[in-house]
Amino acid sequence: MKLFLIDGHALIFKMYYAFLGRPMVNSKGEDTSILFGFTKYLLELIDRERPTHIAVSFDPPGGTFRNELYPAYKANRGETPELVVKSLEPLRDIVLALDIPVLMVPGFEADDVIGSAAVRFAAEGFEVYMVTPDKDFGQLITPQIRQLRPGKGGGESELLGVAEVCDKWKIASPAQVIDILAICGDASDNVPGVQGVGPVGAAKLLGKYGSVEEIYAHLGELTPRQQEQFRAAQDHIDLSKRLVTIKTDISLDVTADQLVYDTAETPQLNALMDRYEMPSLKRLLHKVAIVGGVDSSGGVLPPAAVAARGLVNGRDPLRSSGGDERVARSCPGAVAPPDDESGAALPPRATEIAITDIKGNLIAVNLQGEKLFVATEDGVAAGTPEDFRALLEDRGVVKAGVDLKAQMNRLAVQGIRVEGRLEDLGLMHYLLGPERSHKLDVLARGYLDIELEAESEPATGSLFDDAPEQTGPDRLLETAVILPLRECLRREMAATEGMQHLYDEIEEPLIHVLARMEQLGVKVDLDSLREYAAGLRRKVTEREEEVRKLAGEPTLNVLSPKQIGQVIYEKLKLDPLAKKPKSGNWPTDEQTLSRLAGRSPIIDAILDYRGLRKLLSTYIEPFAGYISPEDGRVHTTFNQALTATGRLSSSNPNLQNIPIRTEEGREIRKAFVSGRPDWVMMSADYSQIELRLMAHFCGDAHLLDAFRHGMDVHAATAAKIFQVPVGEVTADQRRIAKTANFGIMYGISSFGLAERLHCPRSEAKRIIDDYFASFPSIRGFIDTTIAQARERGYVETLFGRRRYIADITSGNATVRALAERNAVNAPIQGSAADIIKLAMIAVDRRLREGGFQARMVLQIHDELLLEVPQEEIAPVRELLVGEMENVTALSVPLTVECNDGKTWLEAH
Hints:
- By secondary structure, this protein is of the alpha/beta class.
- It has 4 domains: 1-164 and 247-312, Rossmann fold; 323-498, Nucleotidyltransferase, domain 5; 522-634, Taq DNA Polymerase, Chain T, domain 4; 690-826, DNA polymerase, domain 1.
- Helices cover 46% and strands 11% of the residues.
- It is built from 35 helices and 22 strands.
- The strands form 6 sheets. Strands 3-2-1-4-5-6 form a 6-stranded mixed β-sheet. The protein has a 5-stranded mixed β-sheet with strand order 9-8-7-10-11. A 4-stranded antiparallel β-sheet has the order 20-21-17-22.
- It starts with a strand and ends with a helix.
């Protein structure tokens, strides 16, 4: 008997990214990519594997026990893509119409449900196959339980047993996968690890000591650097191990008989295929139903005629990646197919050539571990970075590749400075479609119709982390496609007005600036950070006891949403009109509790407790792990091709999201110090740049006048709204005007404004009406921008950066309203992003040309942070303010506030 357990959420996201470059849209304008890919994979799996039993597991709504263990768990993730959210319900309908049970347990991830089902049914004699790409499942593998990893780009699935997992991780037992993951951490789930120790280093230590616990038991035997790394992680390593351990003991209310697969073709399923316009899947469904597969005892049913397979956009996106399908059709100069049917021979242009044959003024670069692959039109050469030093440091040679900044950082560690023009394919693609995936495999599939067989992951993490070790024929192929892809992207950029200029003037020079900043890093005072963390822990404990006291519950688990809900709604009855949801759990999220603020001191105490705990667990405690033992500095990664608006973000650690609205949040800046005792930190921050851009875009005479004359713009706004002289504006009126200025600019509703101002909705509506009556040109700008987005499908910044607004004509009012807010937000926020990027380029150039020692170390939102020697304070301040205020001409002046101090806190 064969039981297949499908990781539904993992498969959904796999299909989401697989179709990003080529979405499927039906005649109703609905994106059916995920529905098609998921269903097709499921039907082909059934057809190929003939399971006797099957189930699909999805993550439940809300948090899980891991969030209670560690509130920062997955806190670094952005919002779930809208298409994924919209696809969940129809996907469940399709799975249920296939008569496949859906396994879901509140409080537990699909991983835990699958793990528990796998262990239970393996003990009952089943061959269990866990269908998931997730590496974590390696820990569950036994002779009876195996993992089936869906192939990349539709290639053949990979079956992992005990031998394969042990070989992949270089470990003695699959159970050691838990230890590997605990040591390495998991950036995607925000699980902290041992900073600077990668899979290779972890495997070597486990090979010697066997487990995390034994490594710590023999800590004195490790190298000094390893000892420091593991000591820094000692406070959280046990937690990390619990977070990455998949549960296998959940009680599941399901029997083996309920999991029997029946291949019947149902009317409900046919109706869903018609509803979403997927006729090729109806044919595949018919084939699967006729072939019938397997009965519950393992007997094969008789086959019948096979229906024709359907194709998407002229090709099957989930096909097996045979050699004949590597042919590029979209752009000339693409890789040719192999000569024989076996696929053993590499395409001619992916053939390895000698290092000495690499010549010319254009090369493709692809750094993998300690090996560098370099391509020209003649072929690909492989060697050490040192072999190619002259080419890399030659300003006259153009370098093309993906995520070049990460490669530059790795090369800088080896003393190699990459010079000359950079043509980053990911950045080019980002400008053409910021909300798509920009990975090399996605580009190769979308532009060249070439499937790269192995995952091509850019180097991430600290400059001092273990580099990934990836070599082999696929590295030759993925390097060979870079130059043909470059031609495709250059042509598309040339055909899209303003894109080439945007790349040449902003994004390309910024790569060099950001690389220098990442390599330099910023100094962090570890003692100050520890002192700060200790103070926060005391405050967390105080708030926790305060909540228990106010609740009258000495043993209350303040981390439990269920217990907090019972106190608020059932014991204290703070919201008598609230109805208990069908889930049985009262809502206790921040937005809900904020609406109850003022009804009892316990609400403020809970919110304060959660805020402090999140600050501590998400930002402060993991932060020490990012401090490099080599130089005591934090080397964050600036993400240049991530946000939809063009703003920079950062990761490892995320410095952009450090909360600074509270006094406790602002205090973290005290730990950021200058690198030398006689140097200072200098902060330069644009003042109200987005409001100034709004004034520029809408041309309102009153706003223009206020900014041109250096007036308090919020007081001036209040004077207009409340029809009083500026000198008579009260503090409360100014507060209301400030909230309106920042909220209405981004399309806030009366409901949202009422929540922010803690006032009745009717009053909030009156304020919005009065605001637009006082500033009709702002209303005009908003309406015109939305209309242009509907007409063109995108909006632009001052510098031509585009954001495509896919749902601007959606029939769903909620979805359309969000799209309209994004349409208004993007030109303003995107222009602010472009301005500070231009300022960074100008400041960096002036500092280097002027021979200054001062150097830029951080960019946070609208602020630049520099390290400056005492003797350069005055000239650098003049340079910094001058470049930032004059980087572009608006109809209102750009104003910069600049200060310095021994710490970032003093300078801000």
